[in-house]
């Protein structure tokens, strides 16, 4: 299989000049050697580099490149110790040692299947080679065409564009940036977002894109350059006595910084203040000008917006936005180990002047981005454009240079906002430092800015910028003289609205990390804690201690709320008593789906039309609105992988078989009417039918269902292709039609004879997710036999088999077993799977296997509407019973659960002294 071939290169790519790898490629290289640790990528790179004896500078550049381009398969975002409530603890015993705690790893994985989605939209399938998974079914020439097409769709509404390969790459890049804790600006997707949202012509978009890219590149460089140069300078000057004779020590230190993301925070507050005091004004003003250019050129005439009653508020907003944007960047690079010498008054000897010619040449050879800058002492932006800012220049001169360079920088508010929200929570991933390392204050405060003489108003506004974000709100209350304490009601708030607990830089030590509020951490991670019964005798947790916290842990957490409002219209379809008449109110989504289905179902149109639901028409504007919303709706599906210390135990040489693996899959935002299905398998939906579909389906169907219009010269090509008939049962069921439109995401080889029943459509694990789970299982367990206790139509079983496992596939429903067998044949793995029709609850005690995979029914649509999913009561049959019976087979259990599963319950499954990994999986996660 091609996908297998791509993996396990085991070595980082030397060529880091490439803009980005696809996420799937990137994630594969990092994890095999070191397992799913957040530091995995840097660690593997660093040890590789050490082995290869790469020079210091190159090593550094490679480290940075690695951080930018490599994503381990599973990123560890947090590690927690949960202490069980018991009497011994009160008697003073060490509960950790006496096995009265559970170690919980929280990780994240990112999975892509956009190409499969594209195939579904096209309505055809091109089998190009044997055993293709569908990833490769879009031919290269077509891909090229499509890339080109992105920019030739000026006449189409922005929503009509199918996400293209370039998007995928750029999104992956952005994702990678985020997951590595890098500012979003460094990624590329935001640029595309601009394009998609604007609906303007390619020319303009392309121009804007290029311009922004250029500016972003420059922006990216500025702080990086400062940090990098000054770090080097620090080494050169401070270490000249102690380290100069021993380059290995320098290397070691650099490595350690790379590996650990160690924080150099001494005096950071002060340095930031100086930095901002020095450059903030210029940055603010220039960015303000550029922003206004986009908005209204007349506004430019307002020379002092901070004094203008009309503009004041905007200015404050702008100030906050910029302040935090730079603050985040500054923080980020500081956390990477870079330091800034901002002591303008006492400039150090310029390292650049001391550097040998060879060193300079070497730098240039490494990468343009890391080129030597003559004076990097403290002229941050100078380095961006090779500004020769000599340290002996006075401040004014320097500022002039800076301002000249600032001219080239644009700060897009959206991007800044993105960055802010994504990097709001920053922490040291190796020492598990706390959320922020600086006490935030309201930047736009009279005490902070000369330009704004009023306190922060944003605190009470719902501005999407600056202080409206949690940290900024906190800042405001502090800066405005209010309390900086945590909001005690934080639990009631969605994670992203919770105030961030602030710490001062001096608080950043490992000891205090344990004080990180686990509730907050859960909140940031989007994990839900409920009050449900814990597994077996576990009474609850008396204490939770965060022992490790990855930066950027908040990444995408806002998407994990299953109950969040999805900005779509007419989510429900109202059917009349006579569905044939088609007089019902429906969503535009349905219209699109219907149009799409008509297109792909032309041969059957006559016969199936009567059964197909008829949608009322809606205006284009509505359509566009939907599409805009859909762009914002993340295509996310998250799961949790609970690998109880599989890596560390592996490192310790523990028996892999002894490990207990629990994958708690966190499902997407879907209302799957399983109960309805059971009661009324072929319902034509004469009652109110929920049309909510998983995010990963929803986004696509709502925003991007017009791929057919693309290019005339491609039309013939398509016409020649045989379009599969829409099965009548699909045509008759609007809900299923949506799933059908995305059938290749469920099974990439759908057209080769895959069959599903209604429940199967709703509950099969999408192929890429199933593949990911299978990969993790393969990596974690050497053992052979896996029991898929609730195999359904075979989504997981097939992938386990493809991953080389022998599978015992069980389902209580004979139809499912038939379908699963059929589908396994399509994938050529039926021989590896033993199908058993029966009740797992009854069969369990007589089964033998090395691993058990649990993907039971989640009990109908409630799982999406409940704040917290009760693992025991909402799963059918009883989720604890299922687990208990599985333990009779093995302790290597992978549990696939919805994302709102009660984490305390999940953790309790590990039992006293146990370890558990909860992995959240994101499918096509994008802004
Ligand atoms: C969510 S589906 C599994 C989907 C599967 N992972 C896939 O990818 O196709 C759950 C399945 O569990 C089956 N099931 C329900 N109760 C069962 C039981 N007691 N024993 C075995 N299977 C059961 C249902 O028939 C259903 O097919
Ligand atoms: C109702 N449902 C959906 N999915 C999963 O969520 C996605 C979106 O609906 C489905 O594609 C499937 O992966 C389910 N998985 C299990 N194990 N059990 C379920 O009842 C179930």
UniProtKB/TrEMBL annotation:
Q: Where is the composition biased (Basic residues)?
A: 708-718
UniProt gene name: TGS1
> Residue span of the signal peptide, if any?
none
What organism is recorded for this protein? Answer: Anolis carolinensis
Region (Disordered) residue ranges read: 1-41, 440-517, 600-635, 701-729
Q: In which compartments does the protein localize? A: Cytoplasm; Nucleus, Cajal body; Nucleus, Nucleolus
PANTHER family to which the protein is assigned, alphabetical:
S-ADENOSYLMETHIONINE-DEPENDENT METHYLTRANSFERASE RELATED, TRIMETHYLGUANOSINE SYNTHASE
Q: Compositional bias (Basic and acidic residues) at which positions?
A: 7-16, 440-460
Which BP terms does GO give this entry?
A: 7-methylguanosine cap hypermethylation
The Polar residues compositionally biased stretches are 462-475, 626-635
Superkingdom as given in the UniProt entry: Eukaryota
* UniProt cross-references to CDD domains, sorted A to Z: AdoMet_MTases (cd02440)
State what protein this is by name. Trimethylguanosine synthase
State whether keyword Cytoplasm applies.
Answer: yes
Give the record's keywords alphabetically: Cytoplasm, Methyltransferase, Nucleus, Phosphoprotein, S-adenosyl-L-methionine, Transcription, Transcription regulation, Transferase
One Pfam family named in its UniProt record: Methyltransf_15
